[in-house]
């Protein structure tokens, strides 16, 4: 069987230069899944995935000096990046949440994508095709390891891997909850990049596995929860590490995962802190959810996996 090659371009810095992007999500570790092979930098792919790609926008004259300058440079020829792939075989997937501060950018990206792409989707109600994000994860383990492993030894109660990003209201609310949680005295291990100096961070991780696998529980706090589509790798990473996620996010997770495979954090306030204290005091909830976690892991690995989504999409053309 001939494999359809999937190329990729992205707005994420340096991502498309990684020849092995997503290969760890395939059983043979070479990006092959069913009828496809993901090769991000393929020069002549059969399909092209535009993954969180930001279309260039014309800059307007904003300062007094700009008024005396020549007309802005013309926008780059975006078609030159499509590697001669036909429109109906170009897939646009936007994966960032529709935060108030960036909604206009997301709408512009969808508008531009429809000019060039046969399929345009994202976790937004205003996307041309509103849909869940196919799953990617950030563990260094191979697919076979994740698929076959029993639960790793759990030696600690709870972890949280997050960042110090504060550029939106939602990010700032999450940081305030972090401050309140630390002040509560509830024991948990904090990891992440660019966290505030006042936090008790244990540092940044190269592999999220080490900040999840030893723990019974993981705080999985989304940046956005206000529609029926958005759910991110925060949940997938926790479950694949055999954690029971204490999840704060929208209803999408309930539609994708089996009941009991994660817990719902009721709110990011004193009520939420009391809930975390009660749950993490013992590993009882983890033991009760162990079977549901195992089921959820198989759904993530085999059904929600972005490679599986791409395989099913390309099968329509065969």
UniProtKB/TrEMBL annotation:
One Pfam family, short name: Glyco_transf_10
Family: Belongs to the glycosyltransferase 10 family.
UniProt GO MF annotations: alpha-(1->3)-fucosyltransferase activity
Protein name per its UniProtKB record: Glycosyltransferase
Domain of life from the UniProt record: Bacteria
Record-linked SUPFAM superfamilies: UDP-Glycosyltransferase/glycogen phosphorylase
InterPro entries, per database record: Glyco_tran_10_C, Glyco_trans_10, GT10-like_C_sf
Keyword Lyase tagged: no
Residues of the Fucosyltransferase C-terminal domain: 153-268
GO cellular component terms, A-Z: membrane
């Amino acid at each position: 069987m001939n494999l359809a090659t999937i190329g990729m371009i992205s707005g994420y810095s340096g991502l498309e230069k990684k020849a092995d992007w997503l290969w760890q999500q395939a059983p043979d570790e070479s990006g092959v899944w069913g009828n496809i092979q993901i090769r991000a930098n393929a020069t002549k792919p059969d399909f092209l995935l535009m993954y969180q790609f930001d279309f260039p926008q014309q800059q307007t004259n904003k300062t007094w000096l700009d008024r005396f300058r020549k007309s802005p440079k013309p926008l780059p020829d975006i078609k030159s990046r499509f590697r001669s792939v036909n429109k109906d075989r170009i897939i646009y997937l936007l994966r960032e949440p529709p935060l108030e501060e960036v909604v206009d950018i997301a709408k512009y990206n969808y508008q531009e994508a429809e000019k060039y792409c046969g399929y345009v989707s994202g976790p937004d109600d205003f996307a041309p095709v509103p849909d869940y994000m196919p799953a990617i994860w950030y563990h260094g383990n191979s697919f076979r390891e994740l698929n076959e492993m029993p639960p790793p030894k759990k030696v600690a109660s709870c972890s949280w891997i997050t960042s110090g990003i504060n550029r939106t209201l939602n990010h700032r609310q999450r940081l305030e909850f972090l401050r309140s949680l630390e002040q509560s005295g509830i024991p948990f291990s904090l990891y992440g990049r660019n966290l505030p100096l006042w936090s008790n961070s244990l540092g940044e991780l190269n592999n999220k596995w080490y900040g999840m696998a030893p723990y019974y529980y993981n705080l999985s706090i989304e940046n956005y929860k206000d529609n029926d589509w958005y759910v991110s790798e925060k949940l997938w990473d926790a479950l694949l590490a055999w954690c029971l996620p204490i999840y704060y996010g929208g209803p999408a997770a309930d539609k994708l995962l089996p009941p009991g495979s994660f817990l719902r954090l009721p709110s990011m306030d004193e009520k939420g802190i009391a809930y975390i204290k009660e749950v993490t005091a013992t590993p009882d909830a983890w033991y009760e959810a162990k079977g549901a976690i195992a089921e959820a892991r198989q759904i993530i690995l085999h059904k929600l996996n972005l490679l599986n989504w791409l395989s099913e999409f390309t099968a329509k053309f065969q």
